[in-house]
Write a structure and sequence with these properties.
elongated, 69 residues
Length: 69
């Protein structure tokens, strides 16, 4: 079953809110602190990059009723 445009918007809207809420709670020291997979700043940059390169094109195709490529 293909998701509707509204379902896609709701999914991404919720995911974005959770992400932004989590990053907003970090203070400056936590933002720059290195952990196993980089800093919070680097993780946010990776998430945004993956979204733009992979998820958004697939979402546009799904909304247009096209098969994923």
């Amino acid at each position: 079953m293909k998701p509707t445009k509204e379902q896609i918007k709701e999914f991404y809207g919720g995911a974005l809110k959770r992400c932004l809420d989590g990053f907003a709670k970090l203070d400056e020291g936590e933002w720059k602190k290195k952990v196993e997979k980089g800093t919070a700043k680097e993780q946010l940059a990776n998430a945004v990059g993956a979204q733009e390169e992979q998820a958004l094109p697939l979402t546009r195709q799904a909304i247009a009723g096209q098969p994923a490529s």
